[in-house]
Amino acid sequence: MNPIILIPARYASTRFQGKPLADINGKSMIMRVVEQALLVCPDVYVATDDERIYNHVIENNAQAVYTDSNHQSGTDRCNEAYIKISNQQKKNWDVVVNLQGDEPFIKPEQIKQVINLFANKSVEIGTQARKFTQNSDIDDPNKVKVLLDKNHKALYFSRSVIPFKRDESISVDYFQHVGLYAFTPQALKNITQLPMCEIENIEKLEQLRWLYNGYSIHVCETEFNNLSVDTPEDLQKIIEKNI
Predict the structure, then answer these.
(1) C-alpha–C-alpha distance, residues 121 and 142, integer Å
(2) How far, in Å, CA of 126 to CA of 97, rounded?
(3) 18, 37, 69, 178 from 224: Cα distances, Å
(4) Burial state string for 32-59 with b = 16 or more CB within 10 A and e = fewer than 16
(5) Whether the Cβ atoms of residue 143 and residue 233 lie closer than 8 Å to each other
(6) DSSP output for 111-179
(7) Global confidence as pTM
(8) What is the DSSP code (8-state) at residue 19?
(9) Confidence (pLDDT) at 173
(10) CA triplet 88, 30, 142: central angle to 5 degrees?
(11) Nearest-5° angle of CA 29, CA 34, CA 39?
(12) What is the pLDDT of residues 45-88, one digit of tens each?
């Protein structure tokens, strides 16, 4: 397979302004993500509408592409970036990876695992999940939960705890969604043309739009418990651990 990795990054985050450029013990968050992605394949681009992020990436000898500032989601940004890069390079890729810019400690093995889902030609969308190991995280709405069917396809994503355990004596494995997606180029194009649906608007999770419209999202499981950065408090915890 021939993958391209796109990293959507914007400066104006509601929860953490300027997050991509946040310093993590001497290296910016966005460059930590880029360096991990480059261990998987050479075609890695940061997709941004911000001059500060663009210049920072280029100055660090990595690749970046400007995208529109009005995108509603990282997936929309990735679709525009893919079209631009494909037209410029006169090239197509088999798999388009959308790697979140707030996963500075993502492992190359995790990215490869999601890409490998596409060895099954029926897969159009892939993502990843891990089992919750700390019960205190489960109630955090920033830790998105995913419910899987017997074939490891997503049934639903939620900021709430799913499934609800009515009988406390029952043991349940809860899964946290990892901020990592991959698509066939055609699927990426198609899903960005879908209108927003009600459950997406309620939960503020764009992947619910794809489920609502009948797309299957295949999920591989990882054992890595990465430290993602949603808020300044998350960043402070990482810095204190001196990672």
Answers:
(1) 32
(2) 9
(3) 26, 16, 33, 10
(4) bbbebbeebbebbbbbbbbeebbebbee
(5) no
(6) HHHHHHGGGSTT--EEEEEEE---HHHHT-TTS-EEEE-TTSBEEEEESS-SS--SSTTS----EEEEE
(7) 0.91
(8) G
(9) 92
(10) 115
(11) 135
(12) 999 999 999 999 999 999 999 999 888 888 999 999 999 999 99
pLDDT digits (tens, 9 = 90+) for 97-117: 999 888 888 999 999 999 999
Q: In angstroms, rounded to a whole number, what is the distance separating the alpha carbons of residues 81 and 77?
A: 6
Helices (H) and strands (E) in the chain, counts: 9, 11
Token reading at 87: 């037209």
CA distances to 144, 150, 215, 216, 239 from 162, rounded to whole Å, are: 10, 16, 20, 19, 31
Radius of gyration, alpha carbons of the chain: 17
Amino acid at 189: K
